[in-house]
């Protein structure tokens, strides 16, 4: 907490110094134009820090959103005689709405499809700007763009841009530690785990895209006011590539890196001006510098600096509180019920009319040979797969039609057969994502309550002393425990564990058995999938056995394990 406060104070002081320098230090027009370009571009690149750096979504149309802001200010002030202070937020709003509309139609695609659509949007806007001459003035562009009253001089407007740069940079910097920012980072690291943990993946992507577009529009509007002239060739697809390169060069995950990358790509050509008499050599040296930075600093310049000076987080020493599990309880004896669950993949029926009930407060195991449909059943129950037929009830409520993040809010929390943690985060941040799912009544009280809840969950699994460590520093077995802690922090009605003993050694399995006993002793309902029959027999009161997607046995553990059909499924009929 203390380091965070120091960082904020340092940022405010640096921002104040930047604004003061811009307002008071006299520069010639050429230098002022370079600074104006760098600052307005940096604001647009901050948008890429959100959509690409935080959320992991490709946007190759940032210059288009930059153009929407610029043309809104230019056309609004010149053609329609509207005040600058009305045109600038109008341009930001237009860019935001355009980004949201583009995201609504494309973000479910993702990957290279998203890149292709954003390229197409960029190219379409460029064609419109060039050819809609009556509206946009065509290739001639828009000139004599006025600045607002009080900022008519270049010095005053530069100070305004510097102040806007500082405020927008602070917002992007703080966003990473807000709930929305953590949701974006979770989506970037692992969409399935984010969805199962209660994050609305599509909405999070959409908000990231819209915010990035809005910052692009803000930078473009200030660019138009700063230079008093714009034309379509300033907002081409190549400019989107330049903005993306700026973000990657400095470090896309941080607004500081984005500002550094923007400054470098604008200043490097100025430093190489003495070579412009030999254009081929100039371009070669310029390209070589960019390639060397990317090659030897894959996380960007700022990422490299942070890695050089990074120190291990001190163990969290705040007094711990016991982990409270207080799931919603309607009083019904059944916490989770599955009725006639069926799932077809093309012509293959992976799950075939499965029924079972998980009684409240106990450990219920779902077992079967490899390929019997256990994990598929769990994926249907938690909403990662849509059921072909059947129904799922949580605490008596039908959740069959709900998406995964809504089922998490309804009381389902799970782990995965293959560990799915958010690897760019610390252990504490991973667990905080689980704790702040919608409907968790135990984290009312803001950030401090969230962190106390996450620390209590980590302490419960024995990793409270390493809460500040990054995920890659943990062993495989400890990563399993962090995933369980993340699920426990959500205060679920039912905890679903998909092969938690997979890959653990004998001592780790004994510790896992003790952990399951402690969880069950707190009254939490558990649905357990595992192949370790010693663990199953020792932990589970009831069993449901699947084979070839069908239920072949269900009942008390000792009785089920003696049934011939179960022995045959595991050992063969001979």
* CATH class category label of the largest domain: Alpha Beta
The tally of strands reads: 12
> What's the mean pLDDT score?
90
Q: What radius of gyration results from the CA coordinates?
A: 28 Å
How many separate domains make up the residues? 2
Bulk shape: elongated
Could you list the spans in which at least 5 consecutive residues all have pLDDT below 50? none
Strand content: 5-15%
Question: Which architecture name of the largest domain does CATH use?
Answer: 3-Layer(aba) Sandwich
Assembly form of the protein: single chain
Strand adjacency order, main sheet = 8-9-10-5-11-12
- Looking at CATH, which topology of the largest domain would you report? Rossmann fold
| Major β-sheet profile | 6 strands, mixed
What would you give as the CATH superfamily of the largest domain?
P-loop containing nucleotide triphosphate hydrolases
Rounded to the nearest angstrom, the distance between the terminal CA atoms is 64 Å
Task: Provide key terms for this protein.
six-stranded mixed sheet; 23 helices; about 10% strand; about 575 residues; alpha/beta; elongated; four-stranded antiparallel sheet; 12 strands; Rossmann fold
Can you give a write-up of this model?
- The protein has 574 residues and is α/β, with parallel strands linked by helices.
- The protein has two domains: 37-245, no CATH class; 334-571, Rossmann fold (3-Layer(aba) Sandwich).
- The protein is 57% helix and 12% strand.
- The chain has helices at residues 2-24, 29-54, 62-78, 84-106, 111-131, 133-136, 154-175, 179-189, 191-196, 201-227, 237-250, 255-271, 279-296, 300-309, 374-381, 404-410, 427-435, 447-460, 476-489, 506-521, 533-539, 557-561, 564-571, and strands at residues 142-143, 229-230, 334-345, 348-359, 363-367, 389-394, 397-398, 412-414, 494-498, 525-529, 542-547, 550-556.
- A six-stranded mixed β-sheet has the order 8-9-10-5-11-12, sandwiched between helices.
- Helix 3 (62-78) packs antiparallel against helix 4 (84-106), helix 11 (237-250) crosses helix 12 and helix 11 (237-250) runs parallel beside helix 14 (300-309).
